[in-house]
Amino acid sequence: MTAYAAPLTDMRFVLDEVADLAGIAKLPGYEEATSDLADAVLEEAGKLAAEVLAPLNHSGDQEGAAFENGVVRTARGFREAYAQYVESGWNALPFDPDYGGQGLPWTLATVVQEMWNSANMSFALCPLLTQGAVELLQAHGSPEQKDLWLPKMISGEWTGTMNLTEPQAGSDVGALTTRAEPRDDHYLITGQKVFITYGEHDLADNIVHMVLARTPGAPAGTKGISLFLVPKVLVNEDGSLGPHNDLRCVSIEHKLGIKASPTAVLAFGDSGGAVGTLIGEENRGMAYMFTMMNNARLAVGVQGLAIAERAYQQALAYARERSQSAAVGAKDPTPVKIVNHPDVRRMLLTMKSQIEAMRALIYVTAAALDRAKREPDEAARARAQTTADLLIPVAKAWSTDLGCEIASLGVQVHGGMGFIEEAGAAQHYRDARIAPIYEGTNGIQALDLLGRKLLRDDGAGMAALLDEMRATLADLETLKGKEITALRGALGEGILTLEAAGDYLLETGKQEIAEAAAGATPYLRIFGTVAGGWLLAKGAAAAARRLAEGAGDPGFLQAKLATGRFYAENVMPQVAGLTMQVITGAGSTLALDEALL
Predict the structure, then answer these.
(1) What confidence score (pLDDT) does residue 556 get?
(2) Range 216-224 average pLDDT
(3) Is residue 573 part of a domain?
(4) Are 162 and 314 in contact (CB under 8 A)?
(5) Burial of 217 (0-12, 13-18, 19+ CB in 10 A)
(6) Which residues have CB under 8 Å from 96's CB, separation 6+?
(7) Between the CA of residue 139 and those of 143, 280, 288, 295, what are the distances in Å?
(8) DSSP states of 137-166 as a string?
(9) How far apart are CA 104 and CA 370, in angstroms?
(10) What is the pLDDT of residue 367?
């Protein structure tokens, strides 16, 4: 497995020219996010990712997490790496300074998340869930809960989890049966939860579980679910650790990938009930949990981007080293590096262009979340929140689907060696495969985009986003060059296609929701592909202007233009076929009786 180097130049370019970090740094509370500070943060994060986390990726995959007599031990080196992560303050980056956070924008924290996940996805899952739990508690916890739990969770000294899934209740969360019986100032939790990422481990002294459960007499389905904070170890009023709570790890899963990340089965209440405290009000647990789920969904989208970047770096290094066959059309029979072969070049550019499109979409989504929190004007906050809500399912599903496809291309670039575990490419492929499944399968993301986003506001949020895309299209009219021309043509067609597909689903969804649902996944793919093209076009326009001004590395800027052109000519044409799936594919999808499948 090759080393990892954070793509700092591209990260900074996207932050500056597409996500507008400078504008975010003008928002109240984010003034410290200066360009110099961002450079320092990214530089230091890149060092930790490359020098500490990445070297543990392959060994962690080989060793995995171990479970023995109820105890989970992480792979060698993980405890020391996590201690260094906490000591350096990385977990606190985007959180409230009143509880020990650094108060920096989520946009910047998202870039750092990409590094952790590229370097070592199994490791990065621990802080990913902790940060989501912190977001939840900041938004919905009582003052007492915040005072007691947030400082240690924000520092990373204690970690957090999300406990939704049960053996009989996966995507259908409303089927859960875990019980919560009121007792004085707390509740006693009984039941079992499965697929709990870092539900048990040896990295921290305490684990704070966010647990969905039902109180007596609660309504059926999701309307009767409440949310509870249930720690592994009870905490005294002075903040010191008390006795172990009534919960235990039953086992950990044996998985296709992310083998160094312990995925636990947890039992609550073997001896009468685990002590938990109610977050917010009874029967509003799903509403509260969506705060954590949205945070985690964007973070999982980051994983798709991150694993794709790691697979690309490895494939590119191999293609530059491996000699095989003469150059196509050459008289000289001497074997050349395979990076010179047209089909290998096509695969590498397919990887590179889509990675850059994903990076832009994810950073822009994070920027929208920052604006939704900090814009002084209420209307501006509302617009930003609408944009974030619209983009999160796309960032999650499109990016994780591409993460699998790009990791697969990475194996293909290696040829036969890619199929051999020793080479390392296969691990990226295996690790990537979980991301389209957890935090809401990608089919659920597509239904969310259709039902909760497109149909709920009758397409108003989508119309506003299309207007932003058209503004970029108009900007391209002022620039010249074959790359700009290609992007302008592809983006113009893409906008029309995305709008037509959305209009069809809006009309169909009002009459035949099942038919609209059958087209939801290809619609999300259209959305992601066109949005990626839009943001690559914004980047290309900035690169063209920088070149004209003589500002920046000309090689990097020319590569941005060339990569954008490749995306326009090789990726954007896919949306035409996907539109036919949306508009005409539902009938055949639903026609065949299930008995004949």
Answers:
(1) 98
(2) 95
(3) yes
(4) no
(5) exposed
(6) 103, 138, 150, 154
(7) 11, 10, 8, 12
(8) HHHH--HHHHHHHHHHHHHTSEEEEEE--B
(9) 10
(10) 98
Measured distance CA(125)–CA(113) in Å, rounded: 10
DSSP 8-state code for residue 512: -
Greatest Cα-to-Cα distance within the chain, rounded to the nearest angstrom: 86
- How many domains are contained in the chain? 2
pLDDT tier, 172 (very low <50, low <70, confident <90, very high otherwise): confident
Beta strands 158-163 and 206-213 are parallel
Q: DSSP per residue over 362-384, as a string?
A: HHHHHHHHHHHHH-SSHHHHHHH
* DSSP H helical ranges for 449-553: 460-476, 482-511, 513-518, 520-549
Which residue, of 249, 283, 317, is where some domain finishes? Answer: 283
* Interval 396-409: pLDDT, tens: 999 999 999 999 99
Name beta bridge partners: 251. Answer: 265
Average pLDDT over every residue of 51-68: 98
Question: Active-site residue numbers?
Answer: 439
Where b means 16+ CB within 10 Å and e means fewer, 36-72 reads eebeebbeebbebbbebbbbbbbebbebbbebeeeeb
Instruction: Give the residue from 204, 193, 197 showing the smallest Cα distance to 247.
Output: 193
What pLDDT, in 10s, does the model give residues 229-253? 999 999 998 899 999 999 999 999 9
Q: Could you read off the pLDDT of 409-446 as tens digits, one per residue?
A: 999 999 999 999 999 999 999 999 999 999 999 999 99
Within-domain flag for 98: no
User: The pTM is what?
Assistant: 0.97
- Taking only the tens place, the pLDDT of each residue in 251-301 is 999 999 999 999 999 999 999 999 999 999 999 999 999 888 888 999 999
Q: Which backbone phi and psi does 485 adopt, to 5 degrees?
A: -60, -45
> Do the Cβ atoms of 192 and 205 come closer than 8 Å?
no
Question: Is residue 466 a contact partner of residue 495, using CB atoms and an 8 Å limit?
Answer: yes
Q: What is the mean pLDDT of the chain?
A: 97
**In the block, which residue shows the tokens 């543990």?**
56
- Tens-digit pLDDT profile for residues 460-480: 999 999 999 999 999 999 999
Residue 453 to residue 457: CA distance in whole angstroms:
7
* Cβ-contact 532, 354 below 8 angstroms: yes
CATH number of the domain that residue 143 is part of: 2.40.110.20
Q: How far apart are CA 494 and CA 510, in angstroms?
A: 25
Q: How many CB atoms sit inside 10 A of residue 284's CB?
A: 16
* Residue that is last in its domain, among 283, 306, 335: 283
Round to whole Å and give the CA distance between 142 and 134: 13
Structural domain of 548: 442-589
Determine the pLDDT at residue 163.
Answer: 96
SS3 of residue 222 by DSSP? helix
Amino acid identity, position 36: D
- Two structure tokens written together for 575: 């949306």
In the predicted model, is pLDDT for residue 448 greater than 90?
A: yes
388 within some domain: no
